[in-house]
Design brief:
It is built from 3 helices and no strands. It is an all-alpha fold and 64 residues long.
Length: 64
């Protein structure tokens, strides 16, 4: 196990992924949000990109 104590979040992420939906993880630093997503991507052989939200972030920075 890599992620401990986040069963609800993991379940919700898997539901969003299987339904073709989106998920936005928000929380204070130290909750293992990045670790959770990178682990899920690695296990499912998916790509993973991290976006740091800053005041000057433009929509095109996310959508391409």
């Amino acid at each position: 196990k890599v992620i401990v104590g986040q069963k609800t979040v993991v379940d919700q992420l898997l539901i969003a992924l299987l339904c073709g939906g989106h998920a936005l993880l928000v929380g204070v630093p130290g909750l293992a949000k990045t670790l959770l997503i990178s682990t899920l991507a690695r296990v499912l052989d998916l790509s993973f990109n991290r976006i740091q939200f800053t005041p000057d972030l433009m929509p095109s920075d996310i959508t391409g």
